[in-house]
Please model this.
Amino acid sequence: MITSNPMEWNTPRSQKAKGYKAIFAQSQQEGVHYWKVPPSFLIQSDQELEEFISGWSDSLYKFARPCPTVPRHGFVDSRRFSHADELRGIWRDTLAADPNGELLIMKAIDAKCSAIYSPGGMFYGPGNDGATAGIDSHSVFLPAHNAHPALLTNAGIKEGDSPYFELVWPKGDNDPRLVQLRGGPKIESAVDYIPYDISAISKIVIAKGVGLEWEEEISRQAQTPEALQRQLVVYDSGGNQASHYAAHCKVHNIPYVASFEPEIGMPLSCNIDKDLQEDAFDIDRVILGLHTGIEVNIPMQDAVNAMLLGLHTFGSNVHIHSRDFNLGVAAALCMRLGSAASLGEYRHHMKNNSLTRSQIFDKVWDNFFAHQKRMTIATRSFFNSRWRSGYGGPKWGECAINSVHLWLEALEFLKNPNSQGVKHILTALNRAVNVAHNGGWLFNKFTEGRYLDEAGRGEPKAFVRAIPAMMCIHEHTCTSLGWRTMRRPRAFRIREHDNGVRVAEMRYERHANPNVNRVSNVKILYGDIRAVLNGDVLHIQYRKSENHSKYAKLDIPISSQQREILGDNFSGRYDCRSMASSRPYIRLEVQEVDGVNVLAIKSTGYCVSNAIKSIKLSQFLEKQTV
Model:
């Protein structure tokens, strides 16, 4: 009796049927395989065909895949059928071409896109056969990742061949269906990156450290005599070109080795095509990627997948046209996602905020450029304001300023496109993607945190899940007017250290505290005001003008909580002495904000009046007019 459960089939004769049974078996094992495999009938005789037809009754099973016992090109085409006679015709054609041939009958899938994955590469296109037929298809070369050995044996794939997994995505569903496993020629994908010949290695650097730690280390190593003489190699045991170690080696044109352990004195041969050696970038494709990524309308979870693909395939992708377009897209998506996550967190510190986190995400995602002013305020708030435990604070400040750094590098690059600018974008992207906040990875607000680890290890499922997003991105390439009108924010600048590491930092501004209201027509109402904390009293000294010889005093009682708040903002900022002794004081000033006088720290702009709701202080400020 025929069955749609491949585990209950008769023994398959063809490699296609063996491969289908093998992938179905592995799909049933938790943690072994990653993709759904739909049920299918195996037809091996006329009797079985008629048995299927008798119980068919116009079911969903309307797709036939002929299977030759000897794999060959140009065999009977797989196709849909709509009635029994059409299916019988496909079976007759199969037997005419191969008397021992078989037929797989499966559900017809109306696919929005399809892909072929093989260790080392991935090819994808629209519809059911965009990848296999090469119709408007795209390719990306991936880090080498070997398939499970038992799978290849059970699938009947010959020694020396590589597995080819064929996947389709049903319309309205982002989970692919694995519909075929066959053998084919290996796709060459180097684990190592060796951009030039080395006559003898004189120094080996072990890849270790995370984030900025490794970035600073490799930047320092790039300035050593061994690196300048092209005798230095980085060794990453068990690594691959999807790792952030390899990405930074590529930025500095330093050889990266992971497939074997190098030794001092060992020679190495270049394994990179001349066209892909140092500074080989397709500038126009990077620009197109930045424009498209900032405008494309895809779900944020899909955007994370495309971002990870663009970053973690940069080192292994030997096609610079797709590689550099994907990099530009990844950078733009990262800016949008980073801003959305940061402003979603900042809502905890906003007054009169009625929006939920999801609503803020959607608003920022839909219009990146309209929210960059608020992003500046949020970044300052994370670093300068007091946040409750588990919310905001310096960790979120690092997340926000790394997103800002990527934005600044993109602005500089678009103003003056060059190869060095591409390297700066890649470095900033790598840092922004890997940054973490109080509760884990920054982008776990939109997707699962394990996706970052899977992409870093070069696992194929991390890149296959990006296919729907990449198809949408390729279909909607565009030029963004926002980049043309956007100006560099004055609140930030990029500072380059002596070792070449570039970081974003906030410029000094009069009103560095984000909680101070926007000041218009500021008027200094006193010539000189100084203050100090005396126990539970804020002691203030002031003169009517700079030239006035006498000073007046004002003591304002404060609570222990107010003292703690003021203490945090006064700490380290004492910049003058008492008018009567040598005791350190801090300079204050009176400002007029929206017609109201407020007292603020002169050096930072922090509003003391916000911390102290005192009638005595209010009366003091109201009496003093210009």
In short: The first helix runs from residue 15 to 27.
